[in-house]
């Protein structure tokens, strides 16, 4: 197990956790910063003050109840569908690669890519607005046509770690992929 | 190379015995399907396996030995090693587990006796082993998506996971032998505690065959009735293709035939299609009966029929007022008095005819509606189609007015554009399908392309007349098009809901919610914590299909295709005055 201080492309601090289960099986977990209580309180107060101001002018209590319901629904949707808690990459030599995102409400969404569909794991550069970012991605190939790349699956899209973190993950993955070739 | 072993969870606590399964061709992996316990006679084991092989078309073999020693069975280990000589294999697996420890140990022996992996070997040279635990019952019942036919020999070799799922699904006869059987062999698998079945399910299965045969016979009667010559006359065919009730009933008859055919569904896709249609039928009919109970309670249907004629009258009166308004000075615009009066009186006469027709029908309306309402027992979709047809019939005069107005407007526009070309000295070349310029030369050689002054004069006159009549025709066209669009919108909403009920795969969604392992998108692996010195243990679980993929995959195809004109094309058609039919129905194709 190894933990170091890394940051993502926006400057928030994230953490990387590498677990080696076996010679050919490794698991990398990138944890995003948790939901900040201050932000939640600021948003809630803002919405409710606005609703109260509207109520002051219109004298309609439906405004207040709708503001409460809206805030609750918005928060539930945010923690269940938007806020990612940690992302995991599990690489098992000669079996495949598993990507999993775990949301703040506990929901997990997982994809498993078999080894015969996986061409390579590489770090790509992209120009995004005014900055150049690096991202780790998996190149997918069709088993019938091993030379062409049919699609690209980017990894760690919600946590967006920076190059130093990506390089560590990349090196580990390449060691395992080299064994199974 | 890494050796992958798929081991069923139900055999984790099985007694010592032989491992029976299949080596996956092309990949370095094996699936364990069952464990045969001691005592057994090797000859009987071989006979049983060859019987099963011919029954299931799966090449089952003895993979190796499984040892879970209990008290009093210390001499097992050497006995197990000797078994590899009785069942000659290329690769012999020796799995063993000790009580109290969670991990298994595995040794692989090649047929020349060389040990490939030793427990004490630290630096993993040679083969490594992954043990993947799976839930046998769930994998057997599950279907990997995208669905591929079993018999389909694709040039790409199937992926390892797909082969594993297929192997377990095809080995169903292996799981029929349970521990209460008095046969020579004792097996351990997911059903070895005894086969469970439900009496109701078995009774339904037995009863379904005669019921299906009876219903298919009823359907054949209906087809015989529909094949009468009188129903194939062109006018009848034309009307029945326009009425959505007839289209819906034809569609449902095809479904009926699919569901109640006595043949059992072969593939997964056929089974899901049948089940979806059956459940959709049931829900449809239940909703229809609910509608009937609501309509006929407190005699609501008579009240509805009583309000129908006044509503039709009211609509006609509103139309009359609209036409009076158009004949005056609508919105302050000045109309051409003569054309205005002609068109207005023409449409008013139509409305007068329509009102007389409605009044003629009014004594019979209540009876007709009462009986038509009963047809909702055939399903809610039927009732909605009938409603759509009633609306179409009641607003038939609006449709007629729209057609008249559109044709007039279209004529005006085409005339104007052609005369405008004349104005500018150009002509439409029919041969070349393009606009060519025209000279005013009176030369004999080019007499056929020349424009005589008389032609020019008459053309200009007609152009001026049409131009000044344009606002009147355009206004009538605009008003009636808007009315027609309102009716089309209402009918469109009804058609959309009918389409939704027809195509929604309720059974597939229910299966996804209640038994998510049946529809699998893929698998998930969890690393199980193990002791050092044992191979890697993984837990394989089924990753269910996303709901949106379920909808996309199992949607029943329907007869309606969505408007093929884009918004831009629609606007162009409206501007030029072409008749629009936004809800075209494609002809029913038999699957």
UniProtKB/TrEMBL annotation, chain A:
The chain crosses the membrane at residues 40-57, 63-82. InterPro entries: PIG-H, PIGH-H_dom. Coiled coil: none annotated. The keyword Transmembrane helix applies. The keyword RNA-binding does not apply. Residues 88-157 form the Phosphatidylinositol N-acetylglucosaminyltransferase subunit H conserved domain. Belongs to the PIGH family. This is Phosphatidylinositol N-acetylglucosaminyltransferase subunit H-like. It comes from Cyprinus carpio (Common carp). The gene is LOC109045272.
TrEMBL record, chain B:
Keywords: Membrane, Transmembrane, Transmembrane helix. InterPro entries: PigQ/GPI1. The chain crosses the membrane at residues 275-296, 342-361, 368-395, 401-423, 456-479, 485-509. Pfam families: Gpi1. GO terms for biological process: GPI anchor biosynthetic process. The keyword Transmembrane helix applies. One of its GO terms (cellular component) is endoplasmic reticulum. This is Phosphatidylinositol glycan anchor biosynthesis, class Q. It comes from Cyprinus carpio.
């Amino acid at each position: 197990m190894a933990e170091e201080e890394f940051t993502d492309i926006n400057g928030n601090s994230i953490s990387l956790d590498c677990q080696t289960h076996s010679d050919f099986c490794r698991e990398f977990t990138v944890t995003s910063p948790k939901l900040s209580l201050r932000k939640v309180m600021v948003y809630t107060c803002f919405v409710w003050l606005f609703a109260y101001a509207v109520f002051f002018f219109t004298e309609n209590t439906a405004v207040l109840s709708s503001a409460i319901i809206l805030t609750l629904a918005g928060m539930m949707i945010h923690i269940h569908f938007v806020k990612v808690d940690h992302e995991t990459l599990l690489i098992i030599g000669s079996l495949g690669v598993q990507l999993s995102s775990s949301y703040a409400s506990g929901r997990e969404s997982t994809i498993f890519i078999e080894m015969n569909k996986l061409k390579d794991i590489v770090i790509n550069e992209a120009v995004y607005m005014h900055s150049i970012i690096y991202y780790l991605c998996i190149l997918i190939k069709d088993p019938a046509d091993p030379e062409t790349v049919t699609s690209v699956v980017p990894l760690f899209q919600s946590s967006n770690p920076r190059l130093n973190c990506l390089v560590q993950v990349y090196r580990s993955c390449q060691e395992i992929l080299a064994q199974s070739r | 190379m890494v050796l992958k072993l798929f081991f069923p969870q139900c055999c984790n606590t099985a007694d010592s015995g032989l491992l029976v399964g299949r080596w996956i061709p092309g990949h370095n992996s094996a699936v364990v399907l069952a464990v045969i316990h001691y005592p057994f006679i090797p000859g009987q084991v071989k006979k049983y396996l060859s019987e099963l092989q011919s029954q299931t078309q799966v090449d089952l073999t003895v993979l190796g030995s499984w040892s879970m020693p209990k008290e009093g069975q210390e001499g097992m280990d050497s006995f197990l090693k000797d078994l590899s000589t009785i069942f000659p294999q290329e690769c012999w697996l020796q799995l063993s587990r000790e009580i109290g420890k969670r991990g298994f140990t595995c040794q692989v022996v090649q047929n020349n006796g060389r040990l490939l992996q030793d427990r004490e070997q630290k630096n993993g040279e040679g083969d490594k082993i992954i043990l993947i635990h799976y839930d046998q019952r769930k994998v057997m019942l599950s279907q990997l998506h995208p669905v591929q036919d079993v018999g389909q020999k694709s040039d790409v070799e199937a992926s390892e996971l797909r082969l594993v799922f297929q192997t377990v699904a095809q080995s169903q006869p292996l799981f029929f032998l349970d521990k209460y059987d008095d046969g020579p062999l004792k097996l351990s698998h997911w059903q070895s505690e005894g086969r469970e079945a439900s009496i109701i399910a078995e009774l339904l299965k037995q009863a379904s065959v005669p019921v299906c045969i009876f219903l298919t016979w009823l359907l054949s009667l209906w087809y015989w009735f529909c094949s009468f010559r009188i129903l194939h006359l062109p006018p009848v065919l034309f009307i029945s293709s326009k009425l959505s009730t007839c289209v819906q009933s034809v569609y449902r008859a095809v479904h009926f035939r699919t569901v109640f055919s006595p043949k059992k569904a072969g593939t997964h896709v056929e089974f899901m299609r049948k089940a979806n249609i059956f459940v959709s039928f049931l829900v449809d009919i239940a909703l229809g009966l609910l509608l009937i109970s609501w309509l006929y309670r407190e005699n609501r249907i008579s009240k509805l029929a009583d309000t129908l004629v006044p509503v039709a009258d009211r609509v006609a009166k509103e139309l009359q007022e609209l036409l009076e308004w158009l004949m005056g000075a609508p919105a302050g615009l000045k109309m051409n008095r003569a054309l205005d009066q002609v068109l207005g009186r023409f449409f008013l006469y139509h409305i007068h005819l329509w009102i007389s027709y409605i009044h003629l029908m009014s004594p019979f309306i209540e009876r007709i509606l009462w009986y038509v309402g009963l047809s909702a027992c055939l399903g809610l979709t039927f009732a909605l189609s009938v409603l759509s047809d009633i609306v179409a019939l009641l607003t038939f005069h609006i449709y007629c007015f729209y057609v008249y107005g559109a044709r007039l407007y279209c004529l005006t526009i085409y005339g104007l554009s052609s005369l405008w070309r004349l104005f500018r000295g150009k002509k439409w070349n029919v041969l070349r399908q393009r606009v060519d310029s025209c000279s005013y030369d009176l030369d004999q050689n080019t007499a056929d392309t020349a424009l005589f002054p008389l032609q020019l004069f008459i053309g200009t006159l007609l152009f001026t007349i049409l131009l000044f009549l344009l606002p009147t025709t355009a206004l009538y066209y605009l008003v009636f098009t808007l009315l027609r669009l309102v009716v089309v919108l209402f009918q469109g909403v009804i058609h959309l809901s009918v389409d939704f009920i027809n195509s929604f795969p309720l059974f597939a969604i229910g299966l996804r919610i209640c038994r998510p392992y049946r529809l699998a998108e893929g698998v998930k692996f969890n690393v199980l914590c193990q002791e050092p010195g044992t191979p890697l243990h993984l837990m394989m679980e089924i990753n269910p299909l996303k709901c949106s993929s379920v909808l996309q995959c199992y949607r029943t195809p329907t007869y309606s295709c969505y408007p093929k004109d884009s918004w831009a094309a629609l606007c162009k058609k409206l501007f030029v005055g072409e008749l629009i039919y936004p809800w075209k129905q494609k002809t029913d194709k038999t699957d």
